[in-house]
Specification:
With 144 residues, the chain is of the alpha+beta class. The protein has three helices and six strands. The chain folds into two domains: 54 residues; 71 residues, SH3 type barrels (Roll), CATH 2.30.30. The strands form two sheets. Strands 1-2-3 form a three-stranded antiparallel beta sheet, with no helix packed on it. The protein starts with a helix and ends in an 11-residue tail after the last strand. Keywords: Signal.
Length: 144
């Protein structure tokens, strides 16, 4: 019987104390709590990203895997961009060998970028000039 009385008394004290403790919280306390939560979430996201980066392995490609002895092989123009005479071209030999270059730069297999136009790039290899176009090219069709 004494145990039941003590339990009820403790419950009464707890119930009567809860509203007072909740009322004692200020806007500043809530703001500090929210700020701490945001900072912890940010730290967690940063840790996740750092782990992802550390898990990534560098893809190592040797020139012998993608280069051919004659011509430019599988060299494909992916994109051309820039402003006025400052143009850049992005090439790829395969999905894991992507190279960005501008006029005068040398590519992976010894090709030298000679000219960059909006729809093609001229490269020179072993004294021969090649015109490289994109992997897909839009051609206007006559609607007749």
């Amino acid at each position: 019987m004494v145990n039941k009385f003590i339990k009820r008394l403790m419950m009464l004290v707890l119930v009567s104390y809860m509203p007072l403790s909740a009322a004692a919280l200020t806007v500043g306390d809530i703001s500090n709590s929210q700020q701490s939560t945001i900072m912890l979430k940010s730290a967690l996201e940063r840790a996740k990203l750092e782990k992802e980066l550390s898990d990534m392995k560098d893809v190592k490609i040797s020139a012998s895997e993608v280069c051919t002895n004659k011509g430019v092989g599988m060299l494909t123009l992916k994109a051309v961009y820039g402003v006025k005479n400052l143009r850049y071209a992005t090439f790829y030999y395969n999905p894991s060998a992507i190279i960005e270059a501008r006029i005068g730069d040398n590519l992976l297999c010894g090709e030298k970028v000679m000219a960059i136009q909006l729809d093609n790039v001229k490269v020179e290899k072993d004294g021969v000039v090649y015109t490289i176009t994109g992997s897909s090219r839009t051609v206007a069709k006559n609607q007749g």
